[in-house]
């Protein structure tokens, strides 16, 4: 996720603030995702009314709230266990 300058705007915003105030001030700003973009207001609206103490609280909410286009390949994991028919990695004891 790229914030396209939204991070600077959010850091300059006065805190504490509510999601409603952030949406009014910055809601039309877009964040760039792995597959497209999304409005800041749309992401914050998913969480309902919240109060943010600082910009880092907002960044955490944005990372948690972007739509599925922000996560790259959906349902992909390189940590899936091997099946019984496959030879998986040998266990290592630390």
UniProtKB/TrEMBL annotation:
Residues 75-94 are annotated as: Disordered. InterPro entries: DUF5789 (IPR043899). Pfam families: DUF5789 (PF19102). It comes from the Archaea. This is DUF2795 domain-containing protein. The lineage of its organism: Archaea, Methanobacteriati, Methanobacteriota, Stenosarchaea group, Halobacteria.
